[in-house]
Design goal:
Number of strands of chain A: 13
Oligomer: homodimer
Radius of gyration of chain A: 21 Å
Shape of chain A: globular
Strand order of the largest sheet of chain A: 3-2-1-4-5-6-7
Structural class of chain A: alpha/beta
Chain lengths: 353, 353
């Protein structure tokens, strides 16, 4: 028999694009895994709705055998609605549904009495806003203060947390610039290349190629294997090694960042970050203390020169205080308890339909 | 105040690809419109869930302003789930939900107590079968006996009905062959061209180009404007005129036909049909009496020679008996009443969840 920390049952909806946790790329699934395992470790009763090959200490409920990004015979539209309906058909077994799946679960949410919390990991397009707008009185969490839209019932911002143990802090800076993450124009790897060239420092690029055309047009042609290297996707250990060799991380995003795990990871290893001042970047790094906010390549080149002013310990400390898995779990616990209280009031007040 | 024929409230879910009724192409929306207007004319209380520009004597409930096939700024995935959730959020106002939207509504169906009937207008791919399989105990109608899969709870086959008044019956055959419908390899227009050429008879092709590549590769190159003509999409009046000039209609489908409105329409005008013996064709035409079933081009050529054996009056009569709008409405009324009785039994038996 399991002894739980409380009598609440949580249904956690992960996306089914990738396994939870993902084998390599899969940002949303990573957060869901971290949160789920963190809650279970603290004694919460969590049922994870994810692909059948997912790995978890929670109860696993799966309709979809493999992620649709990993098995192209799977039709995303079809497995998505089967995955979601399975959660809602068991809504009565749960005190809270925590949705990390974007907009689709919202359209089922009014058909059950179990409250739902949606973490908005990003607005994939403007076209999805009518769905959020219709269901604006649901409960929402944003992943940064900057990644919010008007009118939604936000209960909190909860920053994504990282496993500190995955990152080895070192006092001694490396000698290469590093840019990593999914290879996509939004992430501005072409700007990182320009900044590195102008700085006269070597650049290592790592990450999953999400946009092949972009990679081939703007990146591959500039990779010379010496000053500009592309090393493919990296494992947790591989990433730690790259960070160890890094002088600074360049995060030259071209659109507002929603959160920016890369920046938190970098600082965890003690590596300062040069980031575009777009979206959440100014929430994640502390400008002038753990890195520099810039508005383009030329400013990035100047910032790279000032990296020695940054205390690598300050970088690590910022992560320990704000961006650990433990902090993320604690903040979600606060949100859950807030919802339980609000729901109790509704029942007492007879508001519940 | 409206006086209804009974106290039942019907929610009719149309697709939102096109307006209901469609301006030109839109087979499912056509059937929904015909059924809805037929029921309303008989005094049923029907609420039609369709695009906002739809035209109906029923109550219209719309979330989507225009069909996603008519307005490419509309994301089908997003408007579909908003459209469907709107129905289910009002399920308590209805005694029956009649779904013509394919599989998505099934995944909401267990979250409400209102029974749902799904008319399966076609299995768009094998990948959707797991959805039907999960919800196999729902109520289903097939549109032909041949278009069924194992294990679903079918209550009946209800053939699509046509408006007899849209078709002018004439005793005198025309002198061209006619092939019409959506231009797609499934509909075998290339085989119709081969059969016409071998018969030495002129062929007129009409219809919406669904598969541009197919049209350009296999059809356009053979159109000479004389022996093989393509006349584009046609209005109701235009279709009537084409049928008046037709000696026979060629329906050379390459995959099993689900129902085959074209065959019913053709017979309504008194025009015999030469059809491939695949799927429902043998249910719609009476082989040797209202047309001929064939297994390829050569058999089609032989059949074309035998067209004078067919009584044009027998063609019209078959439609009057089996494929009119009135018959379709009457058959759906039977299915509805069957469901109301089954549901009453469930409530009496305490089976209802």
């Amino acid at each position: 028999m399991h002894h739980y920390v409380n009598d609440k049952h949580i249904a956690m909806i992960s996306p089914v694009a990738w396994r939870t946790p993902p084998r390599a790329y899969g940002a949303w699934e990573t957060v869901v895994s971290n949160l789920t395992e963190g809650l279970v470790a603290k004694g919460w009763d969590v049922t994870l709705f994810a692909t059948a090959d997912s790995i978890t200490n929670a109860k696993l409920s799966a309709i979809v055998s493999r992620g649709y990004e990993e098995d192209k015979s799977v039709d995303p539209r079809i497995v998505s609605c089967l995955h979601i309906s399975e959660v809602f058909e068991h809504a009565n077994s749960f005190d809270l549904i925590h949705n990390h799946f974007d907009y689709l679960p919202l359209t089922y949410s009014r058909l059950v009495s179990t409250p739902m919390l949606t973490t908005i990991h990003g607005f994939s397009s403007h076209q999805i806003l009518p769905v959020y707008n219709k269901y604006k009185n649901n409960y929402y969490v944003s992943i940064s203060d900057s990644d919010r839209v008007e009118g939604l019932n936000y209960l909190a911002t909860v920053y994504n947390g990282i496993k500190l143990s995955d990152f080895t802090y070192t006092d001694i800076p490396g000698d290469t610039l590093l840019a990593y993450g999914r290879i996509h124009p939004d992430k501005g790897f072409h700007l990182a290349i320009d900044a590195a060239k102008k700085s006269g420092l070597p650049l290592v690029i790592a990450g999953y190629i999400q946009d092949k055309h972009y990679f081939e047009e703007k990146i591959a042609s500039k990779v010379d294997g010496e000053n500009i290297k592309y090393v493919g996707t990296v494992s947790v250990e591989g990433r730690d090694k790259l960070l160890k060799q890094a002088y600074a991380v360049l995060h030259m995003n071209t659109i507002p960042e929603r959160f920016g795990l890369v920046m938190a990871e970098s600082m965890a290893a003690g590596v300062p970050v040069v980031a575009m001042d777009l979206g959440s970047c100014r929430e994640v790094i502390s400008d002038g203390r753990t890195g520099f906010l810039v508005n383009g390549v030329d400013e990035a080149v100047k910032a790279i020169k000032k990296i020695p002013e940054i205390s690598r310990q300050a970088c690590r400390k910022r992560v320990e205080e704000k961006f650990t898995l433990e902090t993320m779990v604690k903040n979600y616990e606060k949100v859950y308890n807030k919802i339980f209280k609000l729901e109790e009031k509704k029942i007492q007040g007879g508001v519940r339909a």
